[in-house]
Amino acid sequence: MTLRNIVADLTTLAQDAIVNAANPSLLGGGGVDGAIHRAAGPALLAACRALPEHSPGVRCRTGEAVITPGFALPARYVIHTVGPVWRGGDRDEATLLACCYRNALAVAARHALHRVAFPAISCGVYGYPPEAAAAVAVRSVREALAQWPSMQVTLCAHDAAMAAILDNALSAA
């Protein structure tokens, strides 16, 4: 069981899978989602469009995870998960965020993937407070790694400030 934190561009990591902090349509957007779509190339958008919709415009519900090939990325696969929008913390945001991490790792396990890298899900435009999100991420990943001890999970921070927040969460857990 390995859990580590790095500062890097998620789209450059040669992992079995990287996790996309996606929107429900899976058709790209800003932040990590847009960066992954740009780096993977147009085949990723086509693969996402081919996924079935649960309801109009929704291919992945909040807390769930789906997988596509990585196409032009160094990662073999992209696991897409939709984090919760922060609404003050009293609308099951922590539970939904934990589901993102657990369900993404469950998808990885079903596909015999062992090296998975995550961004800070919901910490961008979805407004989740980074310290609270980091605590949920570390706790959820550690719980999942107890079930899948051969996995190596990387928490990928986009900058030193987020890396420090993740380091604090790792130390506190």
Automatic annotation (TrEMBL):
Residue ranges annotated for the Macro domain, each copy included: 1-173
UniProt xrefs under Gene3D superfamilies: Leucine Aminopeptidase, subunit E, domain 1 (3.40.220.10)
TM regions (residue ranges): none
Pfam families: Macro
Highest taxon, organism lineage: Bacteria
SMART domains, alphabetized: A1pp
Signal sequence extent: none
Protein name: O-acetyl-ADP-ribose deacetylase
Species per Swiss-Prot/TrEMBL record: Dyella ginsengisoli
